[in-house]
Design a protein that fits this description.
CATH class of the largest domain: Alpha Beta
Distance between the termini: 25 Å
Structural class: alpha+beta
Number of strands: 23
Number of domains: 2
Strand content: 25-35%
Helix content: 25-40%
CATH architecture of the largest domain: 4-Layer Sandwich
CATH superfamily of the largest domain: Aminohydrolase, N-terminal nucleophile (Ntn) domain
Length: about 475
């Protein structure tokens, strides 16, 4: 949690289409979104196809806060899509909640996970063509591009192809048409995950941002949706069209932080990656300490790996207020919200030397607050070990640290960061160690925030920002 609580990942999508007209998939979508809640906590929404018409309900807050039993009953239908959101573009207002309905022919609803880097250019182009925007979300650009192609005579599949050819950035999207078709499509780099499964009891295919969403509804995993593809689900069959090809650039943060520990992303299980990262940290810089302590929650597996490899016992270090909102939702004074959520266990840590494990340091604000709390609780030494290498460059593909100024490691040495945070020692994972722990070829991963080297089609939209490698 240390500074990963400052990370904002855009969203999650979930879609279900049953071959049985009597099936009610609304509770299935609800369960899937609940399992994906970690990817977005600002708003939630569901669109279903009921009696030939689209019906949408969405609201601000957590899934369990937005959907009551009666609301779900009103959404009873055999086909639907759902979404949870955290904004990386657009304000946190209800109007930006997804799915968003588009009044085209056919009418459709759309939701997506990602960030469109040429949003401003595409929005200006669409406004010149007479389209009026109702939101500040980049989702609307995707939908209006599709609507534009439909208006000019394209069928739905070709309209999506038109949109994909115009879009630059990260997107894993699902669309529900009033003719009963669900279409899932993904950018050619595969920045954000998307997978397909089958739910036997409902005779239903399921799309989900993570395999943990499939597991939550007892659906069987079939495959990851290939990057650059359109997947059309209609009448109980899935057909696929490959639209764009590129080298893959899967976001390394999916394994380090974003995805649930029980998910499998691109064939690589998150639990094992985090365990290996912990082991590797223990190998990189052996150090004497009394305990290994994880910063809840995503660092626990790495801490276990570190403890196993080093032989240093692991200790619960914090009381956790599980009713406090995750601090990355809060735009101001993250240190205050870290203190609200975490309280060091003085009785366990007083007078001890600890190795504190966390997944990343972004701005350093939360890290500094937690270290201060630990010192006040009587911890003798705090040695901070981070499973992610230093973040030196902004992300434009769906993680909300879009400026150099926000990154504590940009332009600073590890020793300078250590002094600012106030720890006794600081060590980051190496890039080679991270790549090895994930187990995919380096050229299939997006490491832009670690190296300043961006995928080719993203570079023209970086504006006047100049990446300075450190």
């Amino acid at each position: 949690m240390t500074d990963s609580t400052n990370l904002k990942e855009s969203c999650a999508v979930f879609a279900v289409s049953s071959n049985s007209d009597k099936a009610d998939v609304a509770p299935v979508i609800f369960s899937g979104l609940l399992a994906l809640q970690h990817r977005g906590q600002e708003s939630a929404g569901i669109t279903v196809l009921k009696n030939g018409k689209l019906s949408t309900f969405k609201g601000l807050g957590l899934v369990i806060e937005v959907f009551s039993h009666n609301i779900l009953k009103g959404l009873s239908a055999p086909i639907g899509i759902g979404h949870v959101r955290y904004s990386t573009y657009g304000s946190s207002d209800l109007i930006n909640a997804q799915p968003i309905e588009f009044e085209s022919k056919p009418k459709f609803a759309l939701c997506f996970n990602g960030t469109i880097v040429n949003y401003e250019e595409l929005r200006a182009e669409l406004e010149r063509d007479g389209y009026v925007f109702k939101t500040t979300s980049d989702s609307e650009v995707i939908g209006l591009l599709i609507s534009k192609a439909l208006k000019h005579g394209s069928d739905l599949t070709n309209a999506i192809i038109y949109g994909m050819e115009k879009l630059k950035g990260a997107y894993s999207a699902v669309l529900l048409s009033e003719d009963g078709t669900i279409i899932a499509f993904r950018d050619a780099y595969g920045f954000r995950p998307l997978c397909l499964g089958y739910l036997k009891d409902f005779e239903a295919y399921v799309f989900s941002s993570e395999t943990s969403g499939l597991d939550a509804v007892d659906a069987t995993f079939i495959e990851d949706v290939p990057p650059g593809s359109i997947n059309v689900l209609k009448s109980g069959e899935v057909t696929r069209l490959k639209v764009r090809s590129s080298r893959h650039a899967h976001c390394m943060f999916e394994w380090v932080y974003f995805s649930r520990q029980d998910s499998i992303v691109e064939g690589v299980d998150v639990f094992s990656v985090r365990w290996r990262l912990g082991e590797k940290l223990a190998e990189l810089n052996p150090i004497e300490a009394d305990y290994v302590v994880a910063v809840p929650e995503t660092s626990r597996i790495a801490a276990l790996g570190f403890s196993s490899k080093s032989g240093i016992p692991i200790m619960e270090g914090f009381g956790v207020n599980r009713y406090a909102l995750r601090t990355f939702i809060m735009p101001k004074d993250r240190g205050y919200f870290a203190r609200l959520k975490l309280n060091p266990l003085r009785q366990a840590l007083n007078g001890k030397r600890i190795i504190l494990i966390d997944d990343s340091i972004v701005r350093g604000t939360t890290s500094k607050a937690i270290v201060s709390m630990l010192k006040k609780a009587g911890v003798k030494e705090v040695h901070l070990r981070i499973t992610c290498p230093p973040l030196i460059a902004p992300c434009y593909m769906g993680v909300d640290f879009p400026t150099f100024e926000e990154l504590i490691a940009h332009g600073r040495s590890v020793e300078e960061v250590r002094k600012l945070i106030g720890v006794d020692s600081l060590m980051y994972m190496t890039i080679d160690g991270l790549v090895k722990a994930i187990g995919l070829p380096r050229d299939e991963l997006c490491l832009a925030c670690l190296t300043g080297e961006y995928p080719d089609e993203i570079r023209p939209f970086l504006g006047k920002k100049v990446v300075v490698k450190k």
